[in-house]
Design brief:
Layout (H helix, E strand, L loop, with lengths): L9 E5 L4 H12 L3 E6 L2 H13 L4 E5 L5 H15 L4 E4 L5 E3 L7 H26 L4 E6 L14 H21 L4 E8 L10 E3 L1 H4 L22 H12 L10 E4 L7
Parallel strand pairs: 1-2, 1-4, 2-3, 4-6, 5-8, 6-7, 7-9
Helix pairs in contact: 1-2, 1-7, 3-4, 4-5
C-alpha cells in the first residue's frame, strides 16, 4: 500500500464547498489530512464533509465571509483549536465578479472583486501565519492565467487585476515566510469545469463595444480540447501541500492544457 502523503497534517481550504476547493478537500483528506472547510455555502459544505467522513476522514465547517477579517481570524482559530495545528492553507475562494468595460464598472463592483479575491488571500495568509511559524507548512493560492499570462478576457479588468495581485503577493510572502519554513506557491488554472460562472455578472450588450474577435482553429485548449477538471487541479494542490514539493516556493504553476500559450 502506498503511504499517504499528509497523515497527521491539518489543512484549511477556502471556497471548499464546490469546484476546485471541493476536489482539493477530498483529495487532501484521502492523503490523510484533517480538513477545515471554510465557506459561506453551509449546505454544500455539509455534503463535502459527509463525503470525507464516509471515507474515514475528518472535517469541520466554518461559516466564513472571507473578506471579513474578524470572521477569517475566528475561522482559523476554530480549526486550530479543534486539531491543535495548521500545516496547509489553500486560499482558493474567489469570484469572477463584474464583467464589463472599464468605463461601466462601478467603484463598488471593482472593490467587491478585489476584496473577495485579493484581500481574502491576504487575510487568510495573515491569520494563518502565527499557527504555522513553529512547524512550517505550505500555503497555496489559487490565481489564474488571466492577468498573468493571458490578457484576452475582455471585460475582466477587475478579476485579472486581482489575480495578478495574488501572484505578486504570493512571491512576497514566499520570501518573507521562508524564515519559518512556510512555502508559498500560486496555481494559475485556465478554464476548469466549476460553478464560478454563478459569481460572474456579465454585461453582454456593453461588452460588444470593446470585444476583439479571436478565433482558434481547434478550441482554446490544445492539450485535451476541453476544460480541465477540478480533480486535476486537486492533484497539483496535493503535490504542493506535501513534502514532495519541499524545495518549491514563490512559484506560479500554470495548469491550463496549454490554453495560455496560444
Amino acid at each position: 500500500m502506498t503511504e499517504k502523503l499528509l497523515v497527521g497534517k491539518v489543512a484549511l481550504i477556502t471556497g471548499a464547498s464546490s469546484g476546485i476547493g471541493k476536489a482539493a478537500a477530498i483529495r487532501l483528506a484521502k492523503e490523510g489530512a484533517k480538513v477545515g472547510l471554510v465557506d459561506l455555502k453551509e449546505k454544500n459544505a455539509e455534503a463535502v464533509k459527509s463525503e470525507i467522513e464516509k471515507m474515514g476522514g475528518e472535517a469541520i465547517i466554518t461559516d466564513t465571509d472571507i473578506s471579513d477579517p474578524v470572521r477569517v481570524k475566528s475561522s482559523i482559530e476554530e480549526i486550530v483549536s479543534k486539531w491543535g495545528r495548521l500545516d496547509v492553507v489553500f486560499a482558493n475562494a474567489g469570484i469572477n465578479g463584474k464583467v464589463a468595460p472599464i468605463e461601466d464598472i462601478t467603484p463598488e463592483e471593482w472593490d467587491q472583486t478585489l476584496k473577495t479575491n485579493l484581500k481574502s488571500t491576504f487575510l487568510t495568509t495573515k491569520y494563518a501565519i502565527p499557527h504555522m511559524k513553529e512547524k512550517g507548512g505550505s500555503i497555496i493560492i489559487t490565481s489564474s492565467i488571466n492577468g498573468n499570462r493571458t490578457f484576452s478576457g475582455i471585460g475582466m479588468s477587475a478579476y485579472s487585476s486581482s489575480k495578478a495581485g495574488q501572484v505578486a503577493f504570493g512571491k512576497m510572502a514566499a520570501l518573507e515566510l521562508s524564515t519559518y519554513r512556510i512555502r508559498v506557491n500560486i496555481i494559475c488554472p485556465g478554464a476548469i469545469e466549476t460553478n464560478i460562472g454563478k459569481n460572474t455578472f456579465a454585461e453582454q450588450d456593453n461588452l460588444k463595444k470593446v470585444q476583439i474577435p479571436v478565433n482558434y482553429p481547434n478550441g482554446s485548449q490544445p492539450l485535451e480540447h476541453k476544460p480541465g477538471a477540478p480533480t486535476q487541479v486537486a492533484d497539483l494542490v496535493c503535490f504542493l501541500a506535501s513534502e514532495s514539493s519541499s524545495h518549491i516556493t514563490g512559484t506560479e504553476v500554470y495548469i491550463d492544457g496549454a490554453e495560455s500559450l496560444l
